[in-house]
Amino acid sequence: MTVYIVTGHARCGSSMVMRCLEMGGMKATYNRALDEMLREQPVPREYDPNPYGYFELGEDAYERMPDEMDLYEGLLIKMLIPKPLWLTAGPEYEVAFIQRDPAEIAASQNLAYKKSMTAESIGRVVDHMHGILSMRRDVKLHRINHRDMIERPGETLSRLAQDWPFDPAKAIEGVDKDLYRVRAKGQ
Predict the structure, then answer these.
(1) Of 42, 99, 119, 132, which has the fewest CB atoms closer than 10 Å, so is most exposed?
(2) pTM (2 decimals)?
(3) The CATH number fitting domain 2-175, selected from 3.60.21.10, 3.90.25.10, 3.40.50.720, 3.40.50.300
(4) CA-to-CA distance for 187 and 81, rounded, in angstroms?
């Protein structure tokens, strides 16, 4: 049994990758009602953080997940850090680990949700989670750089498609470069 997971820190580009993979033909599972509720949250009107959706399962699904992992066999799910710590032994996990400049994540979180986090603390959390996942024998880890998804989506998605069941030519349509609004200095 294989479960396909997109993970990373909040505001790393995981929703974009989920959208791409779903457009490429993968069967994604997420809570559409929660997506609608999250889209209605008050945010600065000039900045809609996820206009195409969040692709979240919801806390209740994550809490039940250790006992119900077989329900996700062959499916694509999103698990933001630290939720991958809940992965149980048993299935094989293909994990797309999205990495983005921690300064961009911090700035995006502040803009979208008025959360103040330092780039250093975000970097530590991301590195720690990557280290934990890379030590698991049941996890095949695929690093995806956010900037590569924006600048070279065909190449980036084609690499992932060597192991994942989706069409990269269709998936590339999910990249909306106009949504890359928070950039590191000099980018």
Answers:
(1) 42
(2) 0.92
(3) 3.40.50.300
(4) 26
